[in-house]
Amino acid sequence: MILKFPRVYVVILFLYFSFTSFGQVKTYPIPLNASIRSFLETNTSYSFESKTKNKFGQKDTLDLPFFDDFSESHLYPDSSKWLNNQVYVNNHFPYHPPTINVATFDGLNAQGLPYNNTINKDKSGPGDSLISQPINLKDSAGTPYTLQDSMVFSFFYQPNGLGYHLNNEDSLRLWFKSSNHIWIPIWSVGGQFSSNEFIHVSIPIVDENYLHPSFQFMFTTFTRQVGNANHWHLDYIYLDKDRSSSNKSYNDYAIQTTPSPLLKMYTQMPYSHFSVNPSSHMADSIYIRLSNLYKEPKALQLRHEASFEGTTIGSSAFINSTKNIGFQTSDIRDLPNYKDISGLTNNSSVVINRLVEVRENGVANEYKRNDSIVFTQEFHDFYAYDDGSAEQGFGFDQNTNPSNIQGEIAYGFDIYKEDTLNAIATFFNEAVYDVSRKRFKYRIWKSLEGIDNMIEDELIYESEELSPSYSSKNNWRTFTPHYLDTTLILTPGRYYIGWWQGSMYNLNVGWDKNYGYANKPNQINQRIYFKTFGTWNNSDIPGGTLMMRPHFGSQKNLYTAQSKQIEPNNTVYIYPNPAHDMVYLSQEFEHVSIADIQGNIMLEFRNSTNLKISNLQAGIYILYLEDKSKRFYTTKLIIQ
Fold this sequence. Notes:
By secondary structure, the protein is mostly beta strands. It is 3% helix and 41% strand.
C-alpha cells in the first residue's frame, strides 16, 4: 500500500540524524537546489507575484472548494492559490506520491539557497512555509456558512521520501487563521525516518472562529540547517464543505510517476550510435505508475503518442489493463514501445515529444489534470543513465576509510559506434563539507582487473590534477565538462569513466535516486565500481546511479550559459497569450523550443508559424526561438 490513512493525531519520534552509509562509499545530502538556481540565472526578470483576484477594486477571496495536487505546477506553486513560493514543486524527491508532483519543504529559500546562507546540522530554525490565498468561509451566494456545512481540510504528507533523515528537532506544522487574524496551531508531526507511504490527514473545521471571509491556512517547518535535505512532501490538499472526516476516498485516479525511457539501458545516447542497431536499444515496454484514490478498484486504460518535429511517429489507442488498480493504492502498468523511431535525423540532437494519458472507460473523473503527462525522449551527443536531477551526492566515506589511502571510482558504458570521446561531464554538488580545493584526476579504462574476467586494468586516459568545478548554468543544471586534451577514438565495446583521488574524501558527485523509474524503484546500477585497497568492488552500492556522462563527436561548448545574442522580447509576437490549444507566431522560425520553468524542454518545432500545445498542462512556459538568420529570441507563454 502506498497510501496510508491513520487517525489524526500528533506524532513526535526521537531519531538521530545521520548520513546514509554503505561501507566504503556513501551518499550525502546536497546543500542547494540546482534546478531553481539554473532557472533564476536563465530568467533574471522572474518574480513570484501573488495573483489575488479583484472585484470592483477590492481584493476578493477564493471560493470553495480549494484544491491543489501540484500536478499543474512546475518548480514553484501556483500563485493564484498560494501567497509564497518557498516550497519546491517536483516529482524527483517524493516516493510514489498520490499524484504526480508534490510540494517539497526543505532547508532552502525560494532562491534555492540555504536559509541564513548556512549549512550546520547542529543548528535549527524555521524552514519553508506554504501560505494559502485568503478563502471565503463566510458565505456562498449570500448564504452564511455554519458548522453544519461539514467543512473538512485534508492532505497527504510523506517524511523524507528520497531525501535524508529527519530527527526530533524537525517538524511539520499546520496553522489556521482565525477571525481575529491570529494564526492558531492545528496539527503537527515530528521528524522520523524515511517513509514509503504518503499518510492521509483529515481535519474537520469545528470552530466558528474560522468561518470568516479571509480564512487562510499555512504549513510551516522547523528544521536543522542542512540545505536540500530533511524533506517533507505535501500533496492533494483539499478543503470543501459537505465532507466527512472519516471518508478517505476520492473519486480520482492519476499518473504518479514519469514514464520510463524508450531506451532499454540508457536515458539518453547519441542518435548516430542508436541508429547502428535501433531495435537492440529499444525497451520492450514503457512503464508508468498509476494511483487510485477511490474506495473501489478501478480498471484503467492507457494510451501514448510520440511526435518528432510536429509529425506523429508512433501512437496507440487506449489499451485495457488486464489487472485493476486496487483501492487506495498504486501499481505499475506497461505500454508496448513504439515499433520504429529510426531514420529521423542523424545529427547530435533529436528530441521526441511524448504523451501518455490514462482514463477509466465510462466513468467520469473528478480531477482530469493529473490524467496526462507530456515529456520528451532526447538524443544528444552523450550516454546517460541518469535523468538529470540529483537527489543526493556520492563518493567515498571519509569517516570510515583511512584518510591517507587512494581511491578510484569507475563507471561502465557500452559504446555502439566508433567515435571520438571528447569530454566527460560531471554533476558536482557543492558539498556540506567543502571539497572545492581537493584534487582528483579523471581516468578512462578499457578494462578493470577482476571484472568480466579481465586480468589487469587497462588505463587509456588520465587527466592532470583538477579540483571540482561547480556550475549552475542555464537549463542543463550543474553538469561541468572536462574536455580531453588528446584525441581518443573509441571502438565499439565497454569502457569505464571515473576518477582517482589521492586521499579519502567525498567528492560528492550527483546521485540520481530515480534510476529504476516506476518498475524498479530501488534498482542499483551494477556498472559502478570502487577501489580502495587494490581490488575493484561494487558491493554496498546504494540504489540509484552516478551522474557522469561521456560526450562524443566533435568538441563543442557544453553546459555553458546561453552565449548567443538574445533579441529583446518585444521583437517577437505570439498570440493568443494566454493560450489553450494553439499558438501562432508572427513569423516563421527555424527552431522553436517550449520549456517549463524548470528548464525542461517539453516540445520542439522546426520551420513553424504555429505551435500545437493542447497536450501541455496549464502553467508558465518559456519559448526559445531561432530564426533563419540565426538570431535568437525568448518570450514567456502562459497556457490556461
